[in-house]
Design goal:
By secondary structure, the protein is α/β, with parallel strands linked by helices. The longest helix has 33 residues, at 654-686. Helix content is 53%, strand content 8%. Helix 6 packs antiparallel against helix 9. Residues 4-9 and 384-396 have low confidence and may be disordered.
Length: 687
């Protein structure tokens, strides 16, 4: 019941639900205490509403944010509490006392201060919002960008300003209880005094040298930087805040380009959620600003998503435009008819080319280029997995099988996930296998967020894995190298401490103008973080026995790291399967919708070289046999062929293919531009 209430109220926890309930009940209690009248009861109810309101705001609760939509926003709640205090004074027969008139005058004046306070906060934020926001771009040497006001002045400013009424409310309640006006007027003085100080503290930041330059000055500085940097290849991205992963997957590829890269974003929310990178980034929300920006040196523009704002760059004829997408799959989005507006469409392998031919959406075969998937470079083929990463598994004693199901999705289609119908059977079969195997269970991060049944299945599987791990630890056949594990644990602690130290400064909250001014990545620190993450991953796997079953949740270790220490995988239809194919290792996919093997393979290209599992998981023996005796693996040749079909050849490497494609297309752009020069010259003469 509590879980249902949490989901309906859209709060994050039982504590948030309790705080919301207390706040909602607190206001009727305030009215009742005012009508009785009872000062202690009123004070208690007021304290509950203050504390609950503050807690919900600190948690960023969805529910409290929605209250403003039903005319019960923050200001209204404070005003109601103050009006009920006036009612309490009247019911206490204090309406002719000075404290009553003082309270009325105080709250009127206090709300009079809200207007200049709100105006100043809005003005400061608007004036500090520049027409472009950047990372790794040196604007600081070209224009002066002043420091932002101290964070306490602007962070949750409306809530802080309104809470200044607390002194007046407490003082007036004390006066009502003691029948003395002194405490009330002291509280009133404190509230109004602090309110005036807050407003005056904000005033200097709306003019003079406290605000960034005008838009035209910032844009001129941006063009000056572009002229000096001379970008050649642009990654252009626009989308909702939830689509930032589509951009992040291309950052490492952009860092490895042979040409000078630049990333252009259109939404500030994407910039805030973008992963760290050494590539220069320019966020240009305004279409006119983008169209007036000097991008004359750019020869290739890459697009990771088909969105309407692409037109603002597609209109530039001096560069060639390429759709690179955000992952190949059999979904309809991979053959969007919009793709024919680009000069070329780049796919991972032959499968992408065939997909467009079958869909017949107007993309010519000559305009498709196969470049592989550079993002899959961290996935190591089976024979390249180092023995240190596998421990006993490298000696053939205890192979590792990764179970990585996807989440339940937005509907109850049984084909969405194997968790509900097959998950427990899969894990039970693996943990009881003889000869034994190690199980790594890595669920999708959204697992259980929509379906209570999926959440319960996940919990049962987790319990099964953990119980099996305890039983195995007590089995004398499995030994532990305590010294090695202790050393690895010490390494983990050291690395995590250093990562926290390096990440502390980067995580410091800054406003947009300051982030633009100071947002030049420390390359040395960036490289150290990358190195430490690699060391952390090695230490993590060495910190426990290579035969130990584990449940792996959270961002680390990453999915690809789990691929690299596994000998096989069981999963569902998702991008996880397509990515795992790059390893060349045996894999199984669950046919949870019970389509049958032939139809299942017909509908899903990525499972054509997989062991197809029914919900009973009875077919897992085929997968385990392939792991234990690779030379007898009946699907090995099919996996190699499917990998080449989906992802292209191993040589040259995908990043080399990608760089070659960029170079070839840039050459075409130069040829086109040179061909237009005589026509441009003729037009000038005619003019």
């Amino acid at each position: 019941m509590i879980t249902t209430a949490i989901r309906v109220a859209r709060v994050g926890s039982a504590a948030e639900l309790a705080a919301a309930a207390l706040m909602m009940l607190g206001f009727p209690a305030l009215m009742l205490a005012a009508l009785v009248p009872s000062v202690p009861a009123f004070a208690a109810a007021a304290a509950v509403t203050y504390l609950a309101d503050h807690y919900l705001h600190r948690k960023g609760s969805y529910l409290v944010n929605r209250l403003s939509k039903v005319r019960a926003g923050l200001s209204i709640r404070f005003l109601i509490r103050e009006l009920l205090l006036i009612l309490l004074l009247a019911r206490l027969s204090l309406s002719n006392d000075l404290v009553f008139y003082g309270a009325v005058a105080c709250f009127i004046a206090f709300y009079g201060l809200q207007a200049p306070h709100g105006a100043l906060v809005t003005l400061i934020r608007n004036r500090r919002r520049m027409p472009v926001a950047t990372r790794n771009v040196d604007l600081a040497s070209r224009i002066r960008i002043p420091d932002a006001p101290p964070r306490p002045l602007l962070d949750r400013s409306a809530e802080k300003m309104l809470h200044l009424d607390l002194a007046a409310v407490v003082g007036i309640l004390v006066s009502a209880e003691l029948d003395s006006a002194v405490a009330g007027f002291v509280g009133i003085g404190i509230t109004l005094g602090l309110g005036c100080v807050y407003v005056l503290a904000l005033a200097p930041y709306v003019r003079g040298r406290k605000i960034p330059p005008r838009a035209e000055v910032v844009l001129a500085a941006m063009d000056d930087w572009l002229g000096a940097y001379r970008p050649e290849t642009v990654l252009y991205f626009s989308g909702s805040k939830d689509s930032a992963y589509q951009l992040n997957m291309w950052l490492e590829t952009m860092e490895q380009l042979d040409s000078r890269p630049l990333i252009i974003l259109r939404e500030r929310a994407i910039l805030d959620r973008m992963a760290p990178t050494t590539v220069p980034v320019v966020c240009v929300p305004g279409g006119v600003h983008l169209m007036n920006m000097d991008l004359s040196t750019v020869r290739v523009a890459l697009y990771a998503a088909n969105v309407g704002k692409n037109i603002h760059l597609l209109r530039v004829p001096t560069m060639k435009h390429v759709f690179i997408g955000h992952g190949d799959s059999d979904k309809l989005a991979s053959v969007n008819p919009f793709s024919k507006v680009y000069d070329e469409v780049w796919t991972a392998g032959r499968a992408g080319r065939d997909r467009y031919a079958i869909a017949d959406v107007g993309v010519r075969d000559d305009d498709i280029v196969e470049v592989g998937r550079p993002q899959l470079a961290p996935i190591r083929p089976w024979q390249e997995v180092p023995a240190s990463a596998l421990g006993a598994a490298a000696e053939g004693h205890c192979p590792t099988v990764l179970y990585a199901p996807t989440w339940e999705g937005w509907d109850d289609n049984p084909g969405n996930t194997s968790l509900l119908l097959a998950g427990e059977n899969v894990v039970r079969t693996l943990v009881t296998a003889d000869p034994p195997v190690r199980v790594l269970y890595k669920p999708h991060p959204f697992t259980g967020t929509r379906s209570a049944a999926a959440k319960a299945a996940h919990q049962r599987i987790t319990a099964l894995v953990e119980k099996s791990a305890v039983a195995r630890a007590a089995d004398p056949r499995f030994t532990v190298d305590a010294g090695a594990q202790s050393a690895a644990g010490a390494d983990l602690a050291r690395i995590e401490a250093r990562l926290a130290e390096l990440g502390g400064a980067a995580a410091e909250k800054r406003d947009e103008a300051e982030a633009t001014r100071d947002g030049v990545v420390d390359v040395t620190g960036f490289q150290e973080i990358a190195r430490l993450r690699g060391e952390w991953n090695d230490a993590y796997w060495q910190a426990f026995p290579a035969w130990e079953h584990r449940v792996i949740e959270g961002a680390e270790p990453r999915l690809y790291d789990c691929f690299n220490v596994s000998d096989a995988m069981v999963s569902d239809i998702s991008s996880v399967v397509s990515d795992f194919i790059a390893s060349g290792k045996p894999y199984a996919v669950t046919d949870s919708a019970d389509l049958g093997e032939e139809e299942f393979k017909r509908q899903n290209t990525a499972v054509r070289a997989a062991v197809i599992l029914s919900n009973s998981a009875a077919e897992l023996g085929v997968l385990l046999a392939a792991v234990r005796e690779p030379v007898a693996d009946p699907l090995a040749d099919e996996r190699r062929e499917l990998k080449r079909y989906l992802l292209g050849p191993d040589e040259p490497t995908s990043i080399d293919q990608f760089n070659t494609a960029v170079k070839n297309l840039a050459s075409k752009a130069d040829t086109r531009n040179r061909g237009q020069e005589p026509r441009a010259a003729t037009s000038e003469l005619a003019g």
